[in-house]
Amino acid sequence: MTATVDRSHQTPQMTLSPLHAVLLAGTIPLFLGALLSDIAYFQTYQIQWVNFSSWLVAGGLVFTALALLCGISGLFRAEGHSGRSKLYVVLLLLTWVLGFINSLVHARDAWATMPSGLILSVIVALLASIATAVRFSARRTGGAL
Fold first, then answer.
1. Residue 142 has pLDDT above 70, yes or no
2. Does the residue 8 lie in any domain?
3. What's the pTM?
4. Which of 21, 50, 84, 116 has its C-alpha lying 20 to 30 A from 10's C-alpha?
5. Is residue 132 part of a domain?
6. In the predicted model, is pLDDT for residue 123 greater than 70?
């Protein structure tokens, strides 16, 4: 028995280029590493943990900005007319803005970064994870919906 799938009546699928996938997936370990560094500083007060965290936040901002550019360019294609694409771009933009504020907090003296740096790191890591989950969950493979 042969099964045929008629895709003419389906909504356009959100395609994800390999570069976009790598950039998006790279945000989670960077922001999660910053969160873990902040937790380590909160428990030990070793100043080097804040330095690690600030560099990880900076790397996360670079990856998020590039993934955001890919997401914005996707809005202008046929796939960008779905609400999921717009939600993804809004989540990434919010991640970048709060990550930038987090980097400004981490630029202060090490003693002045707590607890606001830790709270922002938790929020940014969660937003990056949610944005990645929203984008990767939209991918469809095979004939099943």
1. no
2. no
3. 0.84
4. 21
5. yes
6. yes
Residue 127 burial class via C-beta count within 10 angstroms: exposed 0-12, middle 13-18, buried 19 and up:
buried
Query: How is residue 98 written in tokens?
Result: 């709060």
Vertex 59 angle, CA 47 and 13, to 5°: 145
Residue-averaged pLDDT of the chain: 88
Q: Is residue 72 part of a domain?
A: yes
The answer to whether position 145 is within a domain reads no
Q: What residue type is assigned to position 52 of the chain?
A: F
The range of the structural domain enclosing residue 63 comes to: 18-137
